[in-house]
Amino acid sequence: MKHKFYSSCVDWPKSINSLNIIIDNSIEITRKTFLSKINKEELKQIEKELGYDSHWKQGGLLMCNDWHVSYHKSKLGKKTVYYFSHSSIEYIFI
After folding, report:
1. How far is Cα of residue 48 from the mean position of the Cα atoms in its chain?
2. What stretches of the chain adopt beta strand conformation (E)?
3. Cα 83 to chain centroid, rounded
4. Three-state SS for 52?
5. Most buried one in 42, 53, 73, 83, CB count within 10 A?
6. What is the pLDDT along the chain (94 residues), one digit of tens a residue?
7. What φ, ψ does residue 43 adopt, rounded to 5°?
């Protein structure tokens, strides 16, 4: 089952104090690995909301080519979570 988008760090529920633990204990992974683990349709929507083009023929920036974006794997309790960081905002998939 693919990991689904849960929350950005901006909207992270205050009742869940584990965001720092997720970030502090993460390892960086490739975009390819990230894509194999998460719901791609949700990611496409987030990319659109962030202003990325969906295809290189549109002439704009694609998220896959943005060197400011990094991809990560971590744990939330016993669950593996994945997230990407864009402009120091984490987008977490659980």
Report:
1. 14
2. 5-8, 27-29, 70-76, 79-86, 89-93
3. 3
4. coil
5. 83
6. 799 999 999 999 887 778 999 999 999 999 999 999 999 999 999 999 999 987 676 667 888 989 999 999 999 889 999 999 998 999 999 9
7. -65, -40
